[in-house]
Structure formats: structure tokens, C-alpha cells
């Protein structure tokens, strides 16, 4: 049952991956003269040279044919070569993807941890005031642009106090050490995660409040367990279910946030790579980064679906 | 009906504060020429990177332009861009969402596929790629941001229409012989306006955020047009010597976006089924 559901969901993502890859391909190749334009301004390249390059890269073919070739290659694992780095796009993108996932993952874990702790405190407190303050902070949190809060963090902790390095993943020239790595990771992860703390808190808090009114909680309490134990043991798992859905929906926004945070802290991830390769007109890399982002988002959505159906078997709506 | 909504609104303290702060920014943007006589684009080489003082409330930037004056004019650009994006995006998303939900069948399948596809790319990445390869003007930027953000509204409206279609009063309208178009525009569309207005207000805030992120990354509207994100982009080189260049535009973005979000959240509670 579960596996059939899983296969169906996975196959269901193929049409949208195809359509978006086509849209992105057009977006990159339609404006101006396309990739061969990089050399158009170069005085050392004669019109004949440019013509040769166009032919070599298949740029004289109709766009639809070019897309077909790209798709065929992409499916077989050949994503083209970077014009700038002169190595395979997949190799270039892979390193950066891991860095982005490290940053995003750390930020997510930190913000979830803080969100759960604050949410439980907020829900168990009976005062109406704390509830409203948390709801207010949630909205404020998602309104602060990370490129601004990041800049303020660098200004205060790096420039003024000199507690943390101002960017990068490690100290250049120094030998590997965990402390060095962590001190570079801490600031961007906290900045990126802080946007979400209040939001998670809000979901945990309102979810827990709602669940605690259910009959089965009353039953559990009637059987003699305390309010705290009832909340943590029976309330929390059920309150967390809506959070799973939100996590999946927020994945694209989280990645957008990570891309900006990377640029602020010079973190060598996909955001930096996309910015650099757009400026350098490195078309194969641009397309590669975009497709990896699409795959990450689709995968996040799938995982959400699976987690949801595992946590709450009532929603396994297959047929 | 309006009376009830208004009374409910008076209980939303945060939304009222948001409305007030937003009003201050909007008025400041509209009456910018009366508030500050200084031309936002006037370069003054003798007064570069001056800290805030009585003659320049928020200091001057790297080529001696008055930051306060630029902030007001940038507010015009950022706010109107946000509103423009929200209008186009909600119009498009609302129309396509209603079409999909109402007609079902292959039209629904097609629109839903398009919605899912566009939602699988982070909006920021989509907007970066779209604006990197064309000569960007404010109007084109509005179009780009609207074309990448309409699916959120479309999905909401589609869901709402699907739900409304099942209700008895719609069935009754069909039964007494109303045409399909009349049912759609007279009975269904008006009932989606609550969702749509909430969506629109939140989109204004999101568009301002995305635009400033784009400008910050260097893919925004080219100078001399000042936007808050563009001002932050220019501030990057001077974090050490001139932190005020980064503080004020960032604060403006945060305050405006937060106000709109508070307002939107308030609206959500007012029109929502609670």
C-alpha cells in the first residue's frame, strides 16, 4: 500500500519537472543572442570564430531541438561543462549543493529546536498576553530581510566585537579544525534560522493548544498523568503534524533565504554560484543550479507528503 | 456586513498599528518633494560619507547624496512596485485559479500543472534569472515578479472555488436556471474576494522583500532609480566607515513589510471562518 502510494507520488512529479525545465531553458536561451553572445564583444573573436562556437555548442539549431538535446544529456547524467571553471557542471554544482544543504539544514534544526521550546512554553502558559506576543513576533520575524539582519550581525559581532569571522566557510590557510568550521557556520545559520523561529513557535503553540482540548487528552489526564506529561507525550506528536505540511511549503522560501544569506556571508553555496554564473553568463551552470534547486524543492515536497502520511495514516488518499 | 467587519477590525491592535505605520510611509513617499527640498540624485563631492547631522538627518552616501531624501524617493519606487506586483499577480492568479476550479477537466489539469511547476523554483532564483538577461525597467520587473508569484494565489482561489461549488446555494442557483457564467461571476467570485484580498496584501510585502533581495544581489533596477534594496547594495562596501547607509534602508524595509504583514494577518482573521 505505502509503496504503491510512494511510487505514484514520485511518478506524479515528472510532468512538472519536465515543464519547469522547459520554461527555464527558454528563459535562459530566448533573450539576446544566447550563450554565444559572451564572445560577441571580444575583439579577438572573429565572426567566423563565433559561428564555429555556435555550431560546436549546437546553438544554430532551433530552440526546441536544443532543449531536446539538453534533456537527453541531462537524463543520462551529462549536464554540460562550465564555461568558467572548465569542468563538468554536475561536479561544480555538487560541492556547492552540499554547502547549501549544510547551511540550510543547520538553520532548520536550530530554528525548529528553538521553535518547539518556545512553543511549548507559550502553550503551557495560560496568560493570553504571552500568546499574543509570540504571534506578533512571528510576523515581525518573517519581515526582517536576512541580507539586512546578516549585515547587522557582521557589523556588530565581526567588525565591532571581532568575535566571529566575517564570512567564508573556513580560515584560508589554516589547518582543518571543527572549532574553525563551526565559528564560520554559526552566524549565517543563526541569521537564516531566526527568520523561522517565531513562525515554528506559532505553529507549535497554536497546534498544541488545539490538541490539548481533545477528548483523548482529557482521558489521559483522567487516568492520572499530569498536564505536562500529557502535553509532551500525547499532545506534541499530534500538534507537530500541521508543522510538517508547513515545512514542505516553506522549502522554496527557505532556499531563497539561504541564497541571500550565502551572499552576505560569502558562503560558497548555490546562491553564490547562481549569482556568479549569471554575471559570467555561464549558461550551463545557471541551468544546472536551477535544476538542482527544482529537484531539492520537489524532493522536499515528496518527503513532506510521505512524512505526513506516515504520521497521520488517515490522509493516505490513494486509489 | 461592512459594519461587522469594521468592528472586528477595531479589535486587531497589531493590524491597526501596522496600518498607522504604513500610512506614515505612504504619505512620506507621496509628499516627498514637500518634506525634503534636497534632490535625491544630487551629487556633492564635498560631503561624502557624512554621518547623520542636523543638515543631513540620515547622513550622506559615498557620492554625497542625502540619504534621507533618497530614502523617501526610494519608498515611492519600492511601495508602488509592491502594489503593482500584487495587482498583476493577484489578477492573473485569481483569474486562472477561478478558471481551473470552475471548469475542472483538462483545463484544470493544465493550470494545476503550471502552478506546480512554477512553485518548484524558488521565486528569488526565477526572478534573478529573468532579470539578469534583459534590460530591466521598473515595469518589466513588476511583470517578472508577478509572473513568478501568481501561482500561490491561483492555488488558493482554485481550492476556494472547488469548495464553494459544492455548497447548496450554488446548486440552487443552477436549479433556478442561472447560466454557468452568471453562477461564476455572481455567486462564486464575490465569495473568493476575502481570500484574494488577504493574498494581495501579503504579496505587496513579499514583492518588496524580493525586490530588495534582487537589488541587494545586484539584479535589481539599475541606478539612478533609488530603491531600498538598491541603497543596501550600495552600502555593502562601507559597512565599517558608514554603517548608517545600511541601517536606515533596512529599517524601512522591515517596518513596511512588517506593517503590511500585520495588516494582512489581521484581515485574514477578520474574513476567515473563525
- How many strands, which pairing sense, and closed or not: the largest β-sheet of chain A? none
Question: What oligomeric state best describes the polypeptide chains here?
Answer: heterodimer
What's the helix-strand series of chain B?
HHHHHHHHHHH
Chain-averaged pLDDT of chain A: 81
Shape annotation of chain A: globular
Q: What overall form of chain B do the CA principal axes indicate?
A: elongated
Structural class of chain A: mainly alpha
Which residues of chain A sit in consecutive blocks of at least 5 with pLDDT less than 50?
none
Which regions of chain B are unreliable across 5 or more consecutive residues at pLDDT < 50?
none
**What is the helix tally of chain B?**
11
Average per-residue pLDDT of chain B, rounded, comes to: 84
Largest interface: A-B, 46 and 45 residues
Report the count of strand segments of chain B. Answer: 0
CATH architectural grouping of chain B: Orthogonal Bundle
Helix content of chain B: over 70%
Description of the molecule:
The complex is a heterodimer of chains A (319) and B (274). In chain A, 73% of the residues lie in helices and 0% in strands. Chain A has 319 residues and is mostly helical. Chain A is globular, with a radius of gyration of 24 Å. Chain B has a single domain, classed as Orthogonal Bundle (MetI-like fold), CATH 1.10.3720.10. Chain B contains 11 helices and no strands. In chain B, helix 2 crosses helix 11 (244-271) and helix 9 runs parallel beside helix 10. The longest helix of chain B is centred in the last third of the chain and has 38 residues, at 180-217. At the A-B interface, helix 2, helix 6, helix 7, helix 10 and helix 11 of A face helix 5, helix 6, helix 9 and helix 11 of B.
